[in-house]
Amino acid sequence: MSAVLFGSIGTLAETSEIQREAFNDAFRAHGLDWHWERADYLAMLKESGGRDRIARYAEARGTEVDADAVHRSKSQAFRRLLATSGLTARPGVVDTITAARAAGMKVGLVTTTSRGNIDSLLDALGPDVAGFDVVVDASEVSSPKPDAAAYTHALETLGEQAGDCVAIEDNGDGVTAASAAGVPCIAFPGANTAGHGFSDARSVVDHLDPADLLPRR
């Protein structure tokens, strides 16, 4: 195995409830009488894309909104909340990154979120979760997950074969994207994505163990 590819910022840290709070902050900022409860948000997470999530919700309510503007406000709120969140890495993440680097493997972050969100998360987590060999963000691919484009781009950038890598994903669309690119995938669902379908994953875990992911030396 030559590379470990983390598939989203949610595989590094538990960010979903911070995201939901950021959406609600953005709705208030735009004068919308919307409030997404956790149960509502869990159902929405089965489809990727925050901007599209806003647009679908507005259409269902018969409300006209500038989904792009609301989503920009949401991203600003998310980054502000991250800075004061005291966020820590999810169980086993730091150990896995450390062990992969010690084994001479590459470590990537393969997302379809914005570079600003990625940078804010990495700043919040500190130096133990940093120095990726490739970081893919929304600006580098034309199609979001579940399309395989983000993984295809990462593999081309790293010069690696799909079968020599392992992906770690926290949601159903991410697992589908990795599988479509031919990358074996470990599902590492978060608190708000545990109900997703992970039939294409090699296994489903609640913490990362380097011994299960990396080749034995």
Automatic annotation (TrEMBL):
InterPro entries found in the cross-reference section: CbbY-like, HAD-SF_hydro_IA
Keywords attached to this entry: Hydrolase
Keyword Hydrolase set for record: yes
MF terms (GO), sorted A to Z: hydrolase activity
Pfam families xrefs: Hydrolase
Listed name of the protein: HAD-IA family hydrolase
